[in-house]
Design goal:
By secondary structure, the protein is of the alpha/beta class. Helices cover 30% and strands 26% of the residues. Strands 6-7-8-3-9-10 form a six-stranded mixed sheet, with helices on both faces. The two termini are 18 Å apart.
Length: 242
């Protein structure tokens, strides 16, 4: 739950990139309708790595997609970068997504595009100015992730872990304010997983990038600034690290 010492109702939501209040969510219709999130309250600290934990079905990914404008908020409030998502118009949601980066376990690369071209797609929503130096930006990130020899490879020529690294680069190339990640290191080896997490931590320190991540990876838990544990749609533990 929200720590009232730090996150009282009087506290300006501008202090936090994400503020969740009384959030509930359901799936299904009529008799099959089932509540999956119950009255969640918390605020996400800017520039930090916040991890969502819990067993399968606990509501982690649903919560992530609600905060990331990928599902409609039905009950309660989600303030994202100063804007209310409950009842927000589609243009508002589209504008907010431009400030977000997404990394999912399924890399979702375009098979007909090279690694460089797939990363380029992360800049297309930012207009011509961002696209002016896309090749340098894409090559820099891919090289930082150990893919400097595979910039022009199609996904079919890449391993599962290499595809995931391309997906990470695509999410980060636009310098997002917030990165939402769902099991981003599941397909990565130990060393590459560490590179990705340390990169996210560095972005937090240097640019104020906020990361919210669903994971069961103990390597990431050791690096998290905060661990929120969900069980059956409710927050059962909220651990902050100094």
């Amino acid at each position: 739950m929200i720590d009232t010492a730090d996150n009282s109702l009087a506290t300006s939501t501008a202090s936090y990139p994400i503020v969740v209040r009384d959030l509930g969510h359901w799936f299904g219709e009529d008799e099959a309708r089932k509540q999956v999130l119950f009255d969640l309250d918390f605020a996400v600290d800017a520039g930090k790595l916040t991890v969502l934990m819990g067993a399968s079905g606990s509501g982690k990914t649903t919560l992530l997609t609600l905060m990331g404008c990928l599902r409609r908020v039905e009950q309660g409030s989600v303030m994202l970068l100063g804007s209310e998502l409950h009842g927000a118009s589609e243009p508002t949601l589209v504008e907010k997504r431009r400030h977000l980066g997404f990394i999912f376990q399924a890399h979702n690369l375009h098979d007909s595009l090279t690694a460089m071209q797939n990363v380029r797609m992360g800049l297309e929503v930012h207009g011509e100015r961002a696209m002016a130096h896309w090749q340098d930006a894409a090559a820099h990130l891919l090289s930082a992730l150990g893919l400097q020899e595979r910039l022009d490879y199609l996904p079919a020529k890449l391993s599962g872990g290499q595809k995931q690294r391309v997906a990470v680069a695509r999410a980060l190339v636009g310098n997002p304010d917030i990165v939402f990640a769902d099991e981003p290191t599941a397909a990565l080896d130990k060393d590459t997983g560490a590179v990705v997490v340390h990169m996210l931590k560095q972005l937090g320190r240097e640019r104020g990038t906020t990361t919210v991540m669903v994971t069961h990876d103990n390597r990431i838990l050791e690096l998290a600034d905060r661990i929120i544990t969900l069980e059956d749609g409710r927050i059962v533990d909220d651990l902050r690290r100094p």
